[in-house]
Amino acid sequence: MSEEVLGGLETLIREKVIYCFQCGSCVGSCPTARAIREYNPRRIMEELILGRWKEVLSGNLIWLCTLCHTCYEVCPQGVGISHIIVELRNHAAKMGLAPTEYLNNVKQVASTGWTSPLTGAVQRIRKELGLPEVDVGRVDEVRKLMELTELRRMMEEQLS
Amino acid sequence: MRYALFPGCMIPLRLPHIERSTRMALEALGIEILDMKGASCCGEPISIQSLDRMAWLTLAARNLCIAEEMNTDILTICSGCYETLKTANFSLRRDPNLRKRINEKLSAIGKEFKGTIEVRNLIEVLRNFGQDKVKAHLKRPLKGLRVATHPGCHLLRPSDIIQFDDPMRPVILDRFTELLGAKSIQYPKKMLCCGAGLRLVDLDKANKLVETKLSLIESSEADCIVVVCPYCMIQYDLTQRMIKREGKAAFNIPVLYYSELLSLALGFSPSEIGLRFHRTSVEPLLERLS
Q1: Alpha-carbon distance A86 to nearest alpha carbon in chain B (angstroms)
Q2: Radius of gyration of chain A from Cα atoms?
Q3: Which of the residues B166, B198, B276 would you substitute to probe the A interface, choosing the one with the greatest number of A C-beta atoms within 10 Å?
Q4: Which among A83, A117, A135 is the nearest to B38, CB-wise?
Q5: Phi and psi at residue A144, in whole multiples of 5°?
Q6: How close is the nearest chain B Cα to the Cα of A83, in Å?
């Protein structure tokens, strides 16, 4: 595990996760936990506090959160669980563990500026509905900004 | 009143009929809409936020800069874009270090975030316009219609950033549904996520969540579901047809985006606003209204 990821995780746990007192309000209100028995945000916080970071980052559970932010609202300790999940995903992605589906979305944005392709069918429907053409004008600016962030390296390493 | 319209990706490229009804309804109310030249994907709250939060905020800030140059507040009709643009606007205003780091990147494309505009959602724009004024424009109030509203997640949460309505017991969408003459009904698990955020990594489980919601809404004898997010729209409208085709369950609940319900109450015809492009038939609803 890189020094950078390790340092970031230590700060995250020391400043936020450590306040979790394991009440389980998060899992009780979690939509993913309803659908997937193995998903349990309380347990993820517990694993972090117990130092089992490697298992958390390399497992697939952190990618199952819908980011509905219900746990963020109901947590009595203000841990900010859904934002912790985002930070864990950011760390895992830096380690080359991002799901391909996510990277493909980024690739689509880099290619047209939007997450969905501009198909002939959609262009016809837009015309039929009297809507203006979709703007694909400044995708160069989007690409330029992406190159200044971690996204560039992630795409180069994982999608090549 | 005028706003810079930020329709996002999913509405213009997958659900253009929603853009159509939004533009028509706002025009009928006399709310001016400007297009944002050179705008792109908001920043993408699921994949890009999850991979690199800094990239997410940077792409969002570029879009905010375009509206700042227009000196106009943004109206976004996608809750994902709303969360993204609102979070970037909030965080860059509050955190000078973050703002400096992002402005360094933006300087590469000749832009600078200044923090001079606000980000609004559709219901918020209508609220600021005035409930009474909306009501005065209605030509065909939706009397007797039973509506199950689904406010969704990112219209409301995280509430310390969004600051729009109560994050767990919201009332504003219901109030604006009843303003149109309809009845906003209560149903169990109203605040449960539609599951769209799971679609990318586990489509079966995403569908399981929306099936739970559909069956609870069906039991509540709603005439339709009303949403304010295109991803929720896809979950309810498209998935409903998918699970019917697969023979898992047979729901027939029309799903409308709020601007479509508003357009009907303003007197537009179903064909003018493109209701034929829905995946789950809206016929039962239209029969109910005739």
Answers
A1: 5
A2: 19
A3: B198
A4: A135
A5: -60, -45
A6: 9
pLDDT tens-digit profile of B258-282?
999 999 999 999 999 999 999 999 9
Does the global pTM surpass 0.90?
yes
CB A34 to CB B50 under 8 A?
Answer: no
Name the band, by pLDDT with cuts 50, 70 and 90, for residue A1: low
Query: Quick one: pLDDT at residue A156?
Result: 84
Starting at the edge strand found earlier in the chain, the sheet holding B119-121 runs B32-35, B2-6, B74-76, B119-121
pLDDT, mean of residues B228-243: 96
Label the pairing between strands B224-227 and B74-76.
Answer: unpaired
Nearest CA in chain A to B103: A145
Where is B49: in which H helix or E strand? helix B47-51
Residue A99, pLDDT score: 94
Whether chain B has a CB inside 8 Å of the CB on A143: the answer is no
What ipTM score was computed for the predicted complex, to two decimals?
0.96
According to the model, what pLDDT value does residue B290 have?
87
- Here the contacts of B184-189 (C-beta below 8 Å, separation 24 or greater) are B184/B147, B184/B148, B184/B149, B185/B146, B185/B147, B185/B148, B185/B220, B185/B221, B185/B222, B186/B220, B187/B148, B187/B216, B187/B217, B187/B219, B187/B220, B187/B222, B188/B216, B188/B220, B189/B213, B189/B216
Instruction: Give B35's strand partners.
Output: B5
Count of alpha carbons within 13 Å of B144, Cβ hemisphere only?
A: 6
